Amino acid sequence: MTLFHFGNCFALAYFPYFITYKCSGLSEYNAFWRCVQAGATYLCVQLCKMLFLATFFPTWEGAVGAYDFIGVHYMAIAALVWMWTRYDLPTHFRLPVTVLLGLSMYKAFLMDCFVHIFLLGSWTALLLKAVVTGLLSLSCLTLFVSLVHSN
């Protein structure tokens, strides 16, 4: 379905220009290869975008109507990466964003170590992971909102 959607978007984006190019006198000025180059660039960018989204933002395969907590985590990481890569990030945001990004990246390892050290049961470990994910996400949301409103 995704590849079909990509083909559809590509056709809707470039075939009107291609038809206009062929029917008008523009083809006499040898601009066809510029159109091909723009189309190839668009193709590469969209394929990279699809690979990035499919790799780092997996789809929710749970029950219909259930809330996606795993995606609540990936969106927080994406927001933290966005904030961390900004060139105009205020200096008082750098340390909290870096700490939250590090905790988000190593959350699974740290949680597994914590569960193993304190010999927690599976339900307690699941509850602890949900609480930690919620706290990381709320902290990220607080930083994100304050950064967006400060600009």
How would you characterize the overall build of this protein?
The chain has 151 residues and is mainly alpha-helical. The protein has two domains: 2-56; 69-150, no CATH class. Helix content is 79%, strand content 0%. The chain has six helices and no strands. The chain has helices spanning 2-23, 32-56, 69-84, 91-105, 107-118, 122-150. Helix 4 (91-105) packs antiparallel against helix 6. The chain is elongated, with a radius of gyration of 23 Å. The relative contact order is 0.08. The mean pLDDT is 79.
| Average pLDDT level | 79
DSSP strand content? under 5%
What's the number of extended β-strand segments? Answer: 0
Biggest pleated sheet:
none
Oligomeric assembly: single chain
Instruction: Report helical residue fraction.
Output: over 70%
Q: Number of folding domains?
A: 2
**What gap, in angstroms, lies between the N and C termini?**
39 Å
Rounded radius of gyration (Å): 23 Å
Structure class: mainly alpha
**Low-confidence runs:** none
> What's the shape?
elongated
Give the topology string: H per helix, E per strand.
HHHHHH
Please report the number of helical segments. 6
Question: What's this, in brief?
Answer:
The chain has helices at 2-23, 32-56, 69-84, 91-105, 107-118, 122-150. It is mainly alpha-helical and 151 residues long. It has two domains: 2-56; 69-150, no CATH class.
Question: What structural keywords apply?
Answer:
2 domains; elongated; 151 residues; mainly alpha
